[in-house]
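Limitations
The structure tokens in this dataset are predictions for the assembled complex, not deposited experimental models. Users should treat interface geometry with appropriate caution, especially where small molecules or nucleic acid strands are included. An illustrative entry is reproduced here so readers can see what is and is not provided.
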Amino acid sequence: MSKIKAAFFSFTSCEGCQLTVLTLEEQLLELVELIDIVTFREAMSEKSDVYDLAIVEGSISRNSEITQVKKIRDTAKVVVALGACATIGGVNCLKNQYEMDAVKKIVYGSMADNFDTIPARPIEAVIKVDYKIHGCPIDKDEFVEVVKAILQERKPRIPEYSVCVECQMKENICLFEKGMVCLGPITRAGCKAICPTYNDGCVGCRGLIDDPNVSSHKKLLTDHGLTIDEAIAKYMLFGSYNKNA
Amino acid sequence: MINNNSLYLPEIARIVSVRQLTEMEKYFEISTEGKKEFSFNPGQFVQLSVFGIGEAPISISSSPFNKDTVGLCIRRMGDVTTAIHKLEIGASVGIRGPLGNGFPVRELKGKDILFIAGGLGLAPLRSMISYVLEKRKDFGRIIILYGTKSPGELLFRDDLETWRQIEDIELIITVNRPDKDWTGRTGVITRFIPSLELEPQNTYALVVGPPVMYKYALLELQEKLIPENNIIMSLERRMKCGVGKCGHCQINGVYVCLDGPEFRYHTLKFLSEAI
Amino acid sequence: MRVLIDKKDIGFFFESLKEENTVYGVKQKEPGFYVFDEAETFSDPLDKYTPTLLPPKKYLFPQKETLLKFSTTPSLKVKQLIEFKKQVIFGVRPCDIHGIKLLDKVFTTDHEDKNYTQKRANTIIIGIDCMKPCYKYAYCESVGCLDVEDGFDVLLTDMGDCFYALIGTAQGEAIIRKNARFINANKSDDEKIKCMKEERRGLFENKFATDISNLPLLFKNADNDPVWDELNDRCLGCGRCNIVCPTCYCFDVFDCVDLNMSSGERCRQWDACTLKDFAVVATGENFRSTRGQRLRHRFNRKFNYLMTKHNTSFCVGCGRCSRSCPVKIDVVETVNAVVNNRKTK
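Predicted assembly:
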């Protein structure tokens, strides 16, 4: 059996998730035994237009990106959305709260007319996505898990439960018990609760669990001293993308 | 058959035959290759392993008189069942069991048996039907109601043909959505219960199918005055361990793996989350 | 047998156990928060103790453990893995001793789970008795778990300048003789302990509005109680209550293949019945699809289902779940709501 050809692509993002893949180090060497990486500009200068597996980082925030990502879908058998920008739209979607003309002016000033921008959206809003690797940045073990799942043709083991499960299993002190706030109770796990472990509240970068009890959680945040606006700002950081808008 | 020294350790077994039954279902015969005789009660199940993918509970479809192999009718649904569908004769799998209790075979002797199978529900019932046919004289009337959504989903067609030709089996097959070639009965299976003439005190109804079927089957069977003790249903739940530990298959106070998977209606009616 | 160990000698006892065992004791993680952890020296907070973030269950039934190892090439080989080592859990409070006793029941009833029982058989439990409520969430007395008669090898009671050590097993006696400096206790010590235990009664104000023995029937008839709707609105479905519970033992099982794609492990990991997907079946139906139904299941496991099966409360009153619930769903409040709603009917 010939090895699967994999290509990495970047849209609107910091490319930090691809950098995270590079930190796999020895595991990366084992991975390239299994898949042939043909395009990966963070790591190599060669490129190829022939690939089976497209690993796509970033959200879609320009019309030209729509065309590009559709071409990727046409070429690849399997498309993986890599990281929060690609899976849920990520922080790029914060701009969606404003008029696009105003956004361009703030960023590019008098040059604004030279740039195209559209409300940012996750990859899935444009093309069918087969696998999602959540997080800002992604968890590298989850990247490996998804590659294995693709090779084994099975569903990857990506938690559906909250960050609290992982956080509590690590025997962390709950940040709410320390008077802090956290989106962990309604955010999808898989990050090994890395932020709460280092005493920082979860910001929800992996997206919400299925059927989150947002109204109860919002009350929890306001009970812990946040104003409604502050609570909403917490949700908006990674949750700005509105697919109905 | 489950050994407490190796509660979670499957026996290695080999696929000795594979038969495509429908688009979604294949029938696998699995053998531990003489390492042990496979004794089980009709209605019991096994935990089937495809190593690297996982384990899934599968009911046994074969005759309990065949102790050399275990027959499993497997629908391609999740990861394990999809993985086993890709395997061929000679491939190694793991098997734990038999698990669960199975049907109360001894109690059923001398009784009229009404089998009600919806869709994949025929899989566990086929084992019991094989038993009853092997010991035909021990039982009274045999009525088999079997329904699927479409003709293409009918399982074990050669068995159905065999049963049709046996004189003292009353066989009713129906499909919800007939195609243009279908000449048989149409409509949901439970519709055919009212026209049966049953001797309620002497009849046992063995019912296996999707949850929605149970509700209607129960209504019709109660209308027929079949005692609650004589209505036996097999339940499907997620199972991880199969031995009463992991908690996934728990319905109120019972564990489907340990206490079932067959339950009498007079037990089930007190379990609020059962059907 | 009961002996006295001078307080200054408790460190010696603790450290001497380390010669042949891994010794876990109570350590402060941050002010006011404690964990069981491998400990250099005896650092138990004694009367300042509040229940550890996770119960000591983690040493008998770890968060994640390997059940099998397999390799699929050249031919399929499967081996079971049962890991254990000689260990001492030092400073287990009565609630958690009861918790371990319940796990003993669970993992030996119907089928023996060797992954648990082998660890258990190699574990020495040194308890420390509680003379006052450790925090406002505790209701151990209400569920009959304040007093503990067995389930420990040694039970220490703090008498001020010394510990009164009640020996529970032959193994407990052996380690006392081998590893501790002690003097025999006398009748007046026994009397003193008896008085201390009498005095603690009634100090536990957080309690159920009915006797624990009434709960199975009350819960059996409370499936449609409005309390479950109210909890459905509040519960976040985060699963923390399950994870911190000393008597929760549900688990998930999954395979993990190595990057060579041929060898791997089958593991089990703690699971939680309050999580959305816990009771989903292969066909996609979810038999407990709402948070309220899932919490009802959890409460019923503690006070009805398992209580009926094993004839003892499956809640030990440690209060960990009440403390760690972000939205403060409280066991005592919930149980009392069920009790009171039954009364008014």
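Some entries come with short summary sentences. For this one: The longest strand of chain C covers residues 22-30.
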